[in-house]
Amino acid sequence: MAINEAKLNEFMGQFVGDIGAVMHALEGVENRLKTGALVADVGCGHGASTLIMAKAYPEARITGFDYHEPSIAHARKAAEEAGLGERVAFEVARAQDYPGKDYDFVAVFDCLHDMGDPVGAAAHVRKSLKPDGTWMIVEPFANDRLEDNLNPIGRIFYSASTFICTPASRSQEVGACLGAQAGEARIREVVTSGGFTRFRRATETPFNLVLEAKP
Ligand SMILES: C[S@@+](CC[C@H](N)C(=O)[O-])C[C@H]1O[C@@H](n2cnc3c(N)ncnc32)[C@H](O)[C@@H]1O
Questions:
Q1: At what angle do helices 48-56 and 69-81 cross, to 10 degrees?
Q2: Coiled-coil regions in this chain (predicted)?
Q3: Residue 209 belongs to what domain range?
Q4: CB of 116 within 8 A of CB of 170?
């Protein structure tokens, strides 16, 4: 099925919320993005989140990574079509060992829970960041207790998670299967197991938790 990239980006924009407001909620990130930050968008898929950041922050040097080669091919094409081909790069790489170091900012949009080895990914993000860098984890909104997620949005997320996210994680080494309703407490365990010492909920939207981790 052909995907209309403009529609996908529009949809992602609504899902993520106002990207400026999200970045503003993170400590010191917005300024860095405006003045040439080195950025990795890990698990970037078709590059929608990467292109949204590139449009909002023209000075940022952004690379999108995903382990799924056809997604990266799609992302490259979308960047060209959006006239952003010179400003963003896309590479096939896993979250556990993508290239580059001294990143100012690493983003994972709606994908940490899809990964087989999210702790391995967290440890690698920590290694790839500058000592004062920031890791932003955007995850589907979820409370920590199952019974607190049995609302219409949570039910949809649990269903999608059963058919999409959990099998994706199970197919990879470790197979942690966090699921799309992992919640902040479970994500905190993953992030601190990866070596991060600071973790907080920076903000939230009706659909997303925006979590901030620092080395
Ligand atoms: C739900 S999609 C999100 C894509 C994109 N971040 C977005 O918000 O549009 C999850 C993505 O995580 C990627 N992914 C899953 N496990 C991965 C891993 N171990 N390393 C890199 N990417 C991974 C998948 O290929 C998929 O593109």
A1: 30
A2: none
A3: 5-214
A4: yes
CATH number at residue 158: 3.40.50.150
Instruction: For ligand 1, pick from 74, 111, 136, 169 the residue to mutate: most ligand atoms within 8 Å of CB.
Output: 111
- Across the chain, what does the average pLDDT equal? 93
pLDDT, residue 27, reads 97
Pocket test for ligand 1, best of 66, 94, 113 (most atoms within 8 A of CB): 66
Residue nearest to atom 10 of ligand 1 (CA): 111
Alpha helix segments (H runs only) across the chain? 5-16, 19-24, 29-34, 48-56, 69-81, 118-128, 152-160, 166-170, 184-193
In this structure, the chain runs to a length of 215
User: Per-residue pLDDT averaged across 143-150, rounded?
Assistant: 97
Is the distance from CB of 49 to CB of 12 less than 8 angstroms?
yes
Amino acid, res. 179: G
Residues contacting 212, CB < 8 A, separation 6+ = 25, 26, 27, 134, 135, 136, 137, 198, 199, 200, 201, 202
Q: How many domains does the chain have?
A: 1
Summarised one tens digit per residue, pLDDT across range 69-126 is 999 999 999 999 999 999 999 999 999 999 999 999 999 999 999 999 999 999 999 9
Q: Are strands 198-204 and 208-214 parallel, antiparallel or unpaired?
A: antiparallel
Whether the Cβ atoms of residue 50 and residue 26 lie closer than 8 Å to each other: no
Q: What is the mean pLDDT of residues 171-197?
A: 98
- Residue owning the nearest CA to atom 4 of ligand 1: 45
